[in-house]
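Sharing a chain and its predicted structure for anyone who wants a worked example. Both blocks are below, sequence first, tokens second.
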Amino acid sequence: MQIDMTNKTALITGATGQLGRVMARTLAKCGANIAIHYRSNEAQALQLQDEIQSYGRRATIVHADITNLDSIVSMKNKIEEQLGTVDIVVANAVVQYKWTSILEQAPEDYASQFDSCVMQSVYLAKAFAPSMIERKWGRFVGINTECVMQNFPTQSAYVSGKRGMDGIYRILAKEIGEHQITVNQVAPGWTISERDRENNTERSESYEQSVPLKRRGTDQEIANVVAFLASDLASFITGAYIPVSGGNVMPSI
């Protein structure tokens, strides 16, 4: 049994980010052609494109504002010109900002999280679901967070955006499921990335003690779950919120 994405095309938003680039590599190694979305880091996007092409896959880079419907539709059109219709959408991009208390958090930070979590999800569905419905096959994978179950101080803008995203994904799963399109979420814990390896910041004893597996997860472990949900192996899983956090958060029944 193996994950085979041959002849599939996947879009990863925020593909130049710490987790996004590993997702892009992983889906490409499973056989998918990759649309590499970036916001500002064109150099990283081009480097990732070269790497994916070295695997024998097709890849294109696409710039878009994920908080704007017209920009996302333009991105869709470019991808279709370069790679064909998109089968798999991984919503990974999110606006970055400085976390602080509710009393001190700027109102525009809440707006940025709503736009980049909720509205990105809505716009991606509007742009890419119709062709999936025609083909009776498709995958949406949203990258959520363990934070939505923790609700720690200073997380309010991020958590509110990601909780809104959760609502969109659960309803979308019910609305388009009859067309054999699955809609799921992966919720990473505090994950070891390339930046951590470069800076020797992989360990955090205080965090690790709260995790049943007593360690932080890796970017590859996140990408592995994304690849599974994007594949035919997960054809009967939809509407799921799946923490990849070593048991640090556990959804209840």
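Comments welcome. The two ends are 30 Å apart (CA to CA).
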